User: Fold these one by one.
Assistant:
Number 1:
Amino acid sequence: MEHLRLNGAYWGLTTLDVLGKLGAVDQDKVVSWIMQCQHESGGFGGNIGHDPHVLYTLSAIQVLALFDKIDVLDVEKVANYIASLQNEDGSFAGDIWGEVDTRFSYIAICSLALLHRLDKINVEKAVNYIVSCKNSDGGFGCTPGAESHAGQIFCCVGALAITGSLHHVDKDLLGWWLCERQVKSGGLNGRPEKLPDVENGGISDRPDDAVDVFHTYFGVAGLSLLEYPGLKAIDPAYALPVDVVNRIFLGK
Amino acid sequence: MHGRPRKALTEEEHGASSLKAAKLRDLQSQVLHFHHNKIYTEEAIEISAKLLESNPEHYTGWNYRKLAVQYRLDRRSEDGVDSESIQSILDEELRVVENALKKNFKSYGAWHHRKWVLSKGHSSTDWELRLLGKFQKLDSRNFHAWNYRRFITALKKIPDEEELQYTTDMIYDNFSNYSAWHNRSVLLSNLMEKGGKRYDKENVLGEEYEFVRNALFTDPDDQSGWFYHLWLLDQTLKQEPVFLSSWPPNGSNLYLSLDGRLKGQQSLPILHFQSKARKFPLVLYFSEAVEGVSSSTVTVEYHDGDSLLWTPLSANNFGFSQAWLTYLKFPDEVPSSEARPVKVTIAHFPGITSSRGMPCSQSCHISFSVCVTSDDQEHTEVQSSHRISWKEENFKARATQSIEANLLHSFSKLEITKENKPSTPKWSMEIISTEIAHCRELLSTTNCKIGKLTLARLLMAHKTLTSYGIPDDGTEVHYEDILALYQDLMKMDPAHICFYEDDYSLVLLKQLTSNIESLLKHCDRYQESSSPSTNPYLCVRLNGLSLSRIGSTEHLLWVQMLDLSHNKLRSIEGLETLQLLSCLKLSHNRLCSFTSLEPLKKLKYLEVLDISHNEIGAHSIDTRRYLCSSPLTHAVGSDWYFQKFVDGDVKLNDHWDAYLLFKDLNLIQLEMIGNAVVDERFKAFLLKLMPELKWLDGEKCR
């Protein structure tokens, strides 16, 4: 799992912050390691020496946001890297190799919003592309015509929220589809008639599987959204604690 | 980890696993080394294959291989074009991908690499389809495979009809194939859009309803068929947007006064409007959200020739809305007591379209007249200096006969004009009735949740179609039946009770506003006993109805005083269309945040607001945070003076949402008691924010 260590950093550190324990980490060490993951193009790789990709670029920005250290970045450089990946039709590639997916639309929009550089992309076209991936069940897929999937829906709805475009979402229809993801055990599946990932105790994807930081993060985030006591509130669009998001957008 | 069991590893397993990890790390560092140093020897490439076949997620490895392929292709073209070699190079890539996919069916990197190879145009798409056939037999829900299939069929230019047959085969193989049903809906949408006799909408829908019925009756608890049925229903009901209602209502006579005094009128002031600026709002309400309402598409004939500015009344500021607003102004020289006619032609020219792209093609007219009462008296603010107490004793239900007659007379003008029939063809009604019958049949043998919900939706659709003037074919549908279904669902499926409560509220309000008699039962006259000289209000009382949501506002555009207290409202979406609202009671509901009150920002005449005894400040999560305009949604421009306003008082930082709301309201009276957010500091903040406020929680402010 070396190739996604930067994602792991984001999952782990955000979880710690939601639990109120971010102070336990050596901030400077983390920041300097993150900067070593940056490629000359401006984008970040999943680990030192790995190729740049938006997936890891967002994680880098998010971790720096947690520490209020976004200013260590050459913001223009990173923003230009991301903006250069927008296609004519508004969609985004993940990297120079051209894979297109609405996940990358969300990543681009979220990253640039956190950097206050949304004006570097064509937001209207980006939104239109996401809307073109909307399905008849109210959900969203990774490309036009693709089946609705909870993960993709998170990305698309998040991107629409950040750009003030939630009116494109049929809230009742999608809300119901998402509610229907809850199965008898209480867990949630990603699509109709699939097995649930259960956030339970420990936290793994379902009760008998091994724990890992990915599912721990989502478990804790879920609990935060359900107002579980003792947890900091998490923002559902930027997937960062609310106080971090408020500081960035409502501060100065 | 997906699929990895949680149990402590034995020492042996531990050893094996760390050996494996060490091997993998070694491969990884080698590949990175080759990549950074651009080493593309056979051995190097072979090592990358080993890595990717055991860890297909190592994306840099796939990038390396792409560069290696490009390097080898370039080298071959230097030696002379040899397509067989090109073929073998690319085939090798496909082999590596296949092995990687065997390790992880769902590897984005592996699938993308395959696409990249195929895009070069030298590989066999037939082979790909055969491979896909095998994959999809093993896992018919793998969305990577379905996406790749779409990619290949586009490359191979396979017609939609053939792919449609493929989905038919998959569905016959297993009804519970949501992916196949989904793809079917996409293909049919394309085919129906292209047109032609074979894919005529009526034929297609008829066949598809029959097809999905097999799935529904075979396994009613499987969701796949029901979601497809929902899509069919949506296609059946899809129609052009139509104009529904307006304020002022068609055929009415509006009294426009400057000082709030009614002259020589015994009746209640439904059609009286007070405005010092001699202007009043004109609201148009459509059957669904539309854009394009402007002076180019809607013409208003009255004395003033100026172009009018129309704005959408949606809770956010985007171009689509069901209700649209403009203001009509009457200049000073208008002689008083003379009724001036106004004629509005909606969709006079094309340009109004629904968010689904359907045009509003039928134009229609409304006309009303305006009487400006004289202004030779001194302006006095009689109406607004007294506090509205909302005391029960101040309400009087339908006091006298004459008042009732007047009300009825006024209300008959408030009925939605039925001149324009929507373009929904007759077969829609037939289909709906047939489906109602089949659904009832199914539910007689199985108590199926989604089936019940579908029946409720079908019955509502039937009601909507009849309200548009399409003749009923004998299927009797009563609101009581629909409400009963939702009550059943709340008992059957308590986990989703909020969802059913919302639908229940909408149906209840539709029932309540469906005719004059039932609406009248909820109208009371309000007279403030402490100030008998003020004009009485006509108050619509929708309190204590367990409403969690607001709807049917097209019937309530005339309302000036509204009581929605003692309900379960979490959202007040819809209230932004009630432009005449002056007094609003929302106490004892479930409002959790100031952001949920965003619709109030559109109510320019709102003066009295009671939001006491709600849940504002009691929740750590604001679920409506992104449903209002704020810097978070990149919707607030240069008028964001919050920090200046707060002036360094850190404790007030959390009240950015209160700031955004109250700074735009023109309140004179506010009740907030009983919300966790209220304390002395917050009250002081409010007073600073609203200098015009006279009453706060029953106490005089200044």
Number 2:
Amino acid sequence: MGRSYFVDEAVEEYLVGIQTAPGSCVTGLLAGQSSPQRDFVVLAVQTPHRESEGQPKASRGVSPLDDIDVEWVTEHAKQVSRMLPGGLCILGLFLVTPPELSKDAQNALKRLIFAMDKYITKGRLWELSEEDVTDQVTLHICSKTKKTVCKTFDVKDPKSSAKPADWKYQTGVSSSWPMLSCSVAVDVQIPMTGSSSDITDKCMKDGLRRWAKQIEAACCLINGRHALDDSELVSGQKKNPKTTHRQTLPARIFVSDAELDERSSALVQLCSGSVKVRGVVHCRAYIHNNKPKARHAAQAIKRDIINTVCSRVEMFLEDLLINEGSHKGLCSGQQALPRRVFAPVPVSGLSVCDYMFPDESTADVAERLKEMLDCKTPEEDIDTSLEGNQLFSNVCGSEITESPSDDSSKHVFSEVQTENPKNQKAPQYYAGVAITAAVALLATATSLLYFNE
Amino acid sequence: TVCDFIFRLKGILEFACQLDNPNGVQSQSTISKSFQDLRSKVTSKNIVFTVCNSPVLIWPNTGFQSSVESLTEASACGDILQWIESDDGGSKKSSKKKDKKKSGPTVVNMKLLFEVTEPAGNTAPSLIRVSTQQHCVKMPLPLDCALSVTTDERLETVCTGLVEALNKQLADMEEVVLQYRKGSSFLVPQPFHFQLPEPAGLITVVYPAGVPDSQLQAVREDLHRKFELPCDRPYLRRANAFHFPDAAYKDGYLRNPHIHLNPPNIEDAKLYLVQGVYSYHHYMQDHVDDNGWGCAYRSLQTICSWFQQQGYVETAVPTHTQIQQALVDVGDKEPRFVGSRQWIGSIEVQAVLNQLLGVTSKIMFVSQGSELATKGRELANHFQTEGTPVMIGGGVLAHTILGVVWSENTGQIRFLILDPHYTGGEDLQTITDKGWCGWKGPEFWDQNAYYNLCLPQRPKSI
């Protein structure tokens, strides 16, 4: 008995509308939500065109299928999974091929799906539970007949073979899905046992994993009710495809500070320093409305909390690595992590998110949404109000002693003249223009002074 | 004043601080500052009490709010019971009503949690890095507060009381941590509850983990003075800690099975019982097949368990082998005694109690079983002053006497007997129904055999 995929009509439209050059293939992602009984697909995005570094690669293999850039497909999947709020995730891949390549498509899809799952789940701070569905869907589309073949693979089992699955189109699959939301105060103290970037990365991961476990074990109230046992999520909304109103359910999370162990003495580590992750994150999660259990909804919002903190720390460290090389690592002082912004996906109205570095603007976000999710979102629809801007200058080396438990009672504010870490991500239009203008003004003022004399 | 409820709040708070120099003068104030932060945390609006096995959440620091509409500021604390799902589903049906006695106050267990949602601000996160070499100290503090209340006490008052108790416990913990700290070595402060005679009632003392009772004598002396406790018997050793009625004993032995029995109704007679807590030891326990020869050993184990649980000794209840070895060590038996299945009597029990526990005992000799009925006064006195279980050996059997019902006027007497010859499992129902722990008359004894009784004496210590 195979799985059943209920797919939004908007996805059908998108897939039908994909343009393929004759004889070539197009890959893409399918996103949505899995539940034990059935799966829901709400988004499809084709793999963006990769800017080639010089000469386009000569065809290596016998067929265009061999030319599929697995690395790029999986990288795209990772980027997109960071943009999906809780409850939504990558469910699988689609592959459009000309008729003559159809019979080899299955193998290509199998290779891709395993590679993608492996790449996306690397570095995840929470474990899959027994109830989590580990099947991923592969959809093959013939570019000429538009006929689709839908199969699933259990990505937990490397030897698994393709199982047939149902692919059904429906209107408004997610239109009545309630959205859970909350803002969470994060305050994690992580000791650093070294200063190289490898050690920093490991310490950060360990520290965040401990925090993630607290969140996973936390007590959760959804809409004022305990999310316990097998009770159904009470959203008070009947399933009605005509209703476009989506309910927002507030979630509240209560943690216990730490795990108790049987030790009789404190854990003391000699550290070369410490890193604190502190601030408020805004979180969202969707839950399908086919008799969902409250605890699944709780799990979805908790995973979003964990993912959003983990993602932005990862992005920050990746960025650091690109800009400064691996020898530098984190510098002292306070540095802003990218903040989360939300935007609606056209038609379904589901929120997707993105992360804005301090020197970026909504224009950059819009550009990324277009590139990664193939959706045109007007800049004014991008909501940047949910997480507040960090109000301090992002200067390395300034000792801002705000932590009350520091052993130093001295409040040193020594400004070391270090260059602002330049961000390769976005062109520094605004900053650059401002500096140029200032210099020009200064030059004019100086020259005026001289001339007047 | 009888308390109907005990509200028990448990939770873990992580104590964390960074010390530049653990031996420097600054470190004490850093540690105190961290404790100050923890005290602020428990008085903040973010703390929440969840009531175990129920959907109830209470925010005690927001002028009392609960997640359940019917529980408000004005609610009596007893109202909370209707929301709690009990663990056992009606196992009480099978017990005979007349034998059931009141089991004491109801315990309401609560857990301390912190809300991380609904934050004060919404500034997105930053990374804050400190690059000085430091000692990072992390220690989970096992908070455990208990409040004894009557049923009409308001729930709001209980919660405010618990917040105060948390604050006080943190202050006590800070004191203990600072007192026993050596550089960067910190001992975990552990709370223990003790049920003291009124008016003190249920109190909590924080002891440093890993420091044995023997080294905390001075602390106990201070507390004995403060609470006006007698100076010759222990009240505040860790073993004396209050056992909450709803908690199971981890070792699986039954405690005080006799409390489930009603004493015989003899005209003009008074009840004299063992004081405190003992464990029921009997044949076949601990995978030792001592059926037919181990009865005196088991009675001795019951007595040892009493001294351990009253806090007089820290040593575990001895095994048959350890008992035999002790007798060899004092020269009472040859080395080949160890591993044998030889019986022992009251004299040997007295010797082992002395050798392993440092406890002295009086021996009472009765030339024939029928005479035991005349020993009412001696036994009554023993239970009143010492209150220890008595081992009796004679004929071919050994038993434990846990108390007497005795009339000074008529001389009528009944004996509360704990029988070590029971070979079954720790089933309270069977043990009480079938008389393995039960009241017996003078005819219980072999009227012609002679008996020796070992009456252990309490050491004078705290």
